[in-house]
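Hi F.,

I've been meaning to write this up properly since the lab meeting, where we talked about keeping a consistent format for the predictions we share between groups. The idea is simple: the sequence comes first, exactly as it goes in, then the C-alpha cells exactly as they come out, then a line or two of notes. No screenshots and no reformatting. I'm using this chain as the first example so we have something concrete to point to.
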Amino acid sequence: IVLNGCSFGSQWSFSYIKRWPDTVDRALLGGIEPLDYAYDSPKWLWASMTRLAVAAEASPTLKQDIPEGGLMNALKEVLKRLGEKAHVVTITDPKTGKGVDVTVGADDLREYIARAWSFMKPEARANLAQWPRHIIELYNGDYRYLAAFSWYKRSHTDTDTLIEFLIDNSLGITAARDEKLTNEVEVQWLGDINADYHATRGITPTPLVSDSFRADWEIDVPVLLVTSDLDWSTPVENARHARKFLKQGHLLEVAGGTHCTEYGQVPAHLPEVTEQIFSFIDADFESIKPQTFFEILPTHVSLPPIDFAPANTNETLYDEWLLMMKNR
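Output, unedited:
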C-alpha cells in the first residue's frame, strides 16, 4: 500500500510502518509528527513565530511601525505587563450593543497568540498576515481584540471536538520528552502549550503505547516528507528530526508555508512543485531507484512573501471583529 497523510495522518503512517513495514510500498507525509512528538515544543514554536516576525520586520508595509527591539521583544514586553497587572477592558457586546468589562491577563494572550488561526481569516497565511499588526496594537496599549477574543471564548456555546485529544493521548509521550518540553526556556513566554493534553490524558479510553514503540527507528520504506517553516502545529524541526531515520528518504521544506501546505498553498502558488511532490506516488521504483527519484526533487522552495496587514489604519482588529460579529 501507499500511505499519504498530514499531521495526525503522518503519525498514523509512522505507526503503521513500524508495525507492518513489509506491507508498505512508500509514504508521502506532511505536517510531520514522529511517534513521540504528539506534544509540541515551546522552543520550536517560538522559533517559528520568530521567523514570521523577521519577515514582518522586513516588510515595507510594517517597517515604520515595528517597536524598537523588534516584534518578539514587543511580545515579551506585553506578556510582562499583563503578567504584572491584569487589565480591565471595555468592549461592546455585538448582539446587545451594551458595554462589557473584560479582565485580561498574560494567560489570555498566551491562549491564542501562538495559534495560526486566531484572526478571523479563512486561510492560515491570511491569519499570519494579521499577527504582526496585533503585536503592534498590543504594544501600543490597545487590548480590545484580546479582550474580545477572551470574552467570546469564555461565553460562547460552541463545542470543541474531543477526538484530537483521544488521538494524541493514545500515543501519549515518553516521560523524558515530556520533561524536556516542560523545561524549555520558551515556556516562560508561551506557558504550557500542551496543557489540554496534560489535562485530558488520564481520561482517554484508548490504551497507551509503550516507550519502545514511541522510540525512533531506521525506516527502510521510501518516504517523502514535506514541511513548512511557518507551521505552528507541527514545526519544521519535527521533520528534520524524522529525516535522520529514513534510509530512503527526502525532505522538502517550504518557506512561508503553514500546516499541510502541500494540499493548499503549494498547489495554489507552485503547481510545478505540486506535480513533482505527487508524482512520487506513481513513480515506478522498479525502473528507477527511490534515491535517484529524490535527487531530482528540490530540498527548498519558497511561497510568495506574505502580504502583511498594515498597522496604522482607521480600523483596528477589534473594529473588524465587531463588524464581523454584528453581521453574523
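Notes:
Residues 42-57 form the longest helix (16 residues).
Strands lie at 2-6, 26-30, 87-92, 99-104, 223-228, 249-255, 300-302.

If this format works for you, I'll send the rest the same way.

G.
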